[in-house]
Amino acid sequence: MLDRPLSARPGAAKGDSDARLWPNAKRSVGFASRLRHKSGVTIKKALKWTITAALIIGVLIAIKAWHDTMRDPVVQRLVIESDALPSGAEPVTIALLADIHVAGPDMPPSRVERIVEQVNALKPDVVAIAGDLVSEKRVATKIYNADEIVAPLSGLKARYGVAFVPGNHDHWFDWPGIEAELAKHPHITVLKNQAAQFGPLAVAGVDDDFTNRADLPAALAEIAPLTGPRIMLTHSPDIFPSVPVEFDLVLAGHTHCGQIAYPWGGSPATMSDFGEKYACGVVKQHQKTLVTSAGIGTSLLPIRLFTQPEIWVVEIRPPQR
Question: How much is the pLDDT for 40?
Answer without folding.
Answer: 63
